């Protein structure tokens, strides 16, 4: 009987997976119909390793460089 490894992936491993998917996509490994699904998975993996970036995108927090004001 095969036992399942329940060890979570590290940030480095997730970044490696993203790199592999990007290389495969660049080399034409995915059909056009599959790209949306592949992109969704990459976005979810990226959110795991870059949670602060995703929080800013999702909440619409102001950029620190513009001192909390919106550009017009």
The gist of it:
The chain has three helices and no strands. With 72 residues, it is mostly helical.
Task: Pick out its properties.
3 helices, 72 residues, mainly alpha, extended
List SSEs in N-to-C order.
HHH
Rounded radius of gyration (Å): 17 Å
Oligomeric status: single chain
Please estimate the helix content. 55-70%
- Beta-strand segment tally: 0
Largest sheet: none
Overall 3D form = extended
Distance between the termini: 63 Å
Alpha-beta content class: mainly alpha
Overall mean pLDDT: 79
Would you mind describing this structure in some detail?
This protein is mainly alpha-helical and 72 residues long. It has a domain of 49 residues. It is built from three helices and no strands. It is extended, with a radius of gyration of 17 Å. 0% of the residues are buried.
Helix-strand blueprint:
Layout: H1 11-26, H2 35-49, H3 51-59
Helix pairs in contact: 1-2, 2-3
């Amino acid at each position: 009987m095969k036992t399942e490894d329940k060890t979570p992936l590290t940030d480095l491993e997730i970044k490696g997976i993203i790199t592999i998917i990007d290389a495969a996509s660049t080399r034409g490994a995915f059909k056009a119909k599959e790209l949306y699904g592949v992109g969704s998975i990459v976005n979810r993996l990226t959110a795991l390793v870059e949670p602060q970036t995703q929080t800013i995108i999702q909440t619409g927090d102001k950029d620190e460089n513009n001192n909390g004001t919106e550009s017009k």
